[in-house]
Specification:
The chain has 447 residues and is α/β, with parallel strands linked by helices. The protein has three domains: 4-135 and 308-350, Rossmann fold (3-Layer(aba) Sandwich), CATH 3.40.50.720; 137-304 and 355-359, 2-Layer Sandwich (Dihydrodipicolinate Reductase, domain 2), CATH 3.30.360.10; 363-443, ACT domain (Alpha-Beta Plaits), CATH 3.30.70. The chain has 14 helices and 16 strands. The strands form two sheets. Strands 7, 8, 9, 10, 11, 12, 13, 14, 15 and 16 form a ten-stranded mixed sheet that branches. Strands 3-2-1-4-5-6 form a six-stranded parallel sheet, sandwiched between helices. α4 runs parallel beside α5 (103-119) and α5 (103-119) packs parallel to α10 (198-212). The chain is elongated, with a radius of gyration of 24 Å. The chain starts with a strand and ends with a strand.
Amino acid sequence: MSNSIKLAILGLGTVGTGVINLINDNLDELKRRSGRDIIITEVGTRRQRDDIDATIIQNSDLMATAASDNVDIVIEVIGGTTLAKDVIMHAIKHGKHVVTANKALLAEHGNEIFAFAEAHNVHVAYEAAVAGGIPIIKVMREALAANKIDWLAGIINGTGNFIMTEMRDKGRPFADVLSEAQELGYAEADPTFDVEGIDAAHKLALLASIAFGIPLQFDKVYCEGITGITLQDVDYAEELGYRIKHLGFAVRRDGQGNADAAGIELRVHPTLIPQEALLANVNGVKNAVLVNSHPLGQTLYCGDGAGAGATASAVMADVMDLVRVLGSKDRDDQHNTGHHVPHLAFIPEQLSDTPILRAEQMTTGYYLRVHAYDSPGVLADITRILSDAGINIDAILQKPAHKVGQVPVIILTLPVVESQMNLAIEKIEKLDTITDKVVRIRLDELA
C-alpha cells in the first residue's frame, strides 16, 4: 500500500476550510508524527472553489466521493441528520473510516451508525462533535478508562455561556446579548438549538454514553433553556454567592436503597453554582467539562468549544489516530483495524441497560424566587409548605419591594427530588398572598 493516507472532506464551510488550512500549515509536523504523507485527494462541495489546490478533485456528488477508491478516510462536516447520515453510511459500506463533527447526527442515530461501522470493521471518530478543540472524548475513552465516572457537568455550548457571562458582567438583558451573539456569529439566525439547550443535550448524550457505558439516548435528556433567566435572578444569585451557568449534567444515582430511584440523570438547564467553583469561572464562549471519577477525583477540561481552528484541531486529532490504525493494519497484514478503542468506550456487548431517570425523579437543590404581598405570616406559610414536603431550606433572602406592597423572597434549598418540589410549588402558588408564578432554577454545589 502507498505510504500516503488519502482524505476526502465533505463540506467546505468554516470547519472544512479550517481542516484544509491546518493540513497545509502543519504538513511536515503531521508527517513527523504519523510517518505518513497525509493528503487531501477529494472534496465534496456544491460549488467549485478557486482557492482549492488544483490537484484536489472537487465533486458535487458526495456519495461518489464517499465511496471513491482514491480515499482512505472520509471527513464529514456538512452537518444535519439526513444527507450526512446517508453519506456516512455509504462511506462505511465501502470500507472507509469516517471522522465527523456532527453531534446531532450521532446523538440521534449513533447507535445505528456505530453498529454498522463495527459490522464493516471500520471506525467512526467524533472528537470534534463535543466541546470543539477540547479532547474530552479521548480523555474519557482512554485516559479515564480505569476510572469509574460518578458524574460530569459541563459548559458545552459557547453561545449560552457568552450570554450568561455578559448578563452577569455587564448587566445586559438576555435579548440584547443574544442579538450581539448573532452579529458576532456565535449564534445562528434561529438560535433555538443554543438557547434552549438542544445543542448541549446532543453533546451530553454522547458524553453520558461514554461515561456510563449506555446506549445513546438523546430523547431521554431533560432540556431547559436560558430564555427565562432575568437580570434580577443573576443579581440575586451573585448576592448569595452563586453564579448562573447553562450546564449539562450526567449523574449516576445508586438510589440509596430505593431501586426505583437508581439510574442515570441526563439534564441540561440553568444552574446556580458556587462562585468559587472552577466552572463558575469559565467565561465568554469557552467550553469546559468537569468530570468526577474514582479514584482520580475531579478533573477539569477547558478550552475553545467552536470555531474553525478548534474544530479542525479535533478533526485532525481523529485523523491522526486513524492513520496509526491503518499503519498497524499494514504492518500486521491481517484483517483487523489495529488498536481500536470501542466507539462508546465499552465493548458493544457490555453496554448497560441502566435506566435513565425521568425529570420528576431527578435530585437537585433549588433557587426559588417568590413574589408575595408584604403582609404578616407570608414567609411562615411558605416555609411550612416546604417543610411539610420534606424540603430543607439552606438560605432565605427577602428583598425590598419592587411594586408597592409586594416583596420578592429568595429561598435556597438543599437537594430534593423534583416530584417533591413540584408539589410544594403548586401549593405555594395557591396561597392568596402569592402574586405570581414561582421562579425556580436548579442549584448544584458540584461536590
